Amino acid sequence: MCTGKCARCVGLSLITLSLVCIVANALLLVPNGETSWTNTNHLSLQVWLMGGFIGGGLMMLRSVFSSAFGVLGAIYCLSVSGVGLRNGPRCLMNGKWGYHFEDTAGAYLVNRTLWDRCEAPPRVVPWNVTLFSLLVAASCLEIVLCGIQLVNGTIGVFCGDCRKKQDSTH
């Protein structure tokens, strides 16, 4: 595949992934699809850091022009989402709001019986686990694709684009 076609394919993939990240981050702001939790201090810090919106989304859209910038955005999204996944959501448990799974080092992810201990927001643990996992996967793909884009761009600079120029007689 020539560098121009590769850049187009990777670019379209990155745009799609960035939109997935933006939507996933927007959904994290409304646990269980309910907006009543957004107006209070009950969402985790990782949700408010907007890793999916800023890193996996806006910075990735910008990567069409600069793949290095896209890699930084994807790393930001991966870092914030990974910490959000590891620490778990901020929720109400035994009358106290906090990061109740923070000390489990992510072990709560495989012990679903712990998930029901969060009293509010309802079903916040599967909501966060699903969306942060999606952001982790998307940002990992973005890192790979931006890396390909960097290599492809470098090859294009030194070797030129292999696309054939249109014959000017037609």
Give an overview in words.
The protein is mainly alpha-helical and 170 residues long. The chain has one domain. Helix content is 58%, strand content 4%. The chain is built from 5 helices and 2 strands, in the order ααααββα. The chain has helices at residues 3-28, 45-48, 51-62, 67-87, 124-159; strands at residues 91-93, 96-98. A two-stranded antiparallel sheet has the order 1-2. Strand 1 and strand 2 (96-98) form a beta hairpin. Helix 1 runs antiparallel to helix 3, helix 1 runs antiparallel to helix 5 (124-159) and helix 3 packs parallel to helix 5. The two termini are 26 Å apart. Mean pLDDT is 84; it is low at 166-170.
- Rg: 20 Å
Strand order of the largest sheet: 1-2
- The ordered string of helix (H) and strand (E) elements is HHHHEEH
Q: For the residues shown, what is the average pLDDT?
A: 84
The global form is elongated
Q: What structural class results from the helix and strand content?
A: mainly alpha
Family: Belongs to the L6 tetraspanin family.
GO molecular function, one term: arginine binding
InterPro entries: L6_membrane
Protein name: Transmembrane 4 L six family member 5
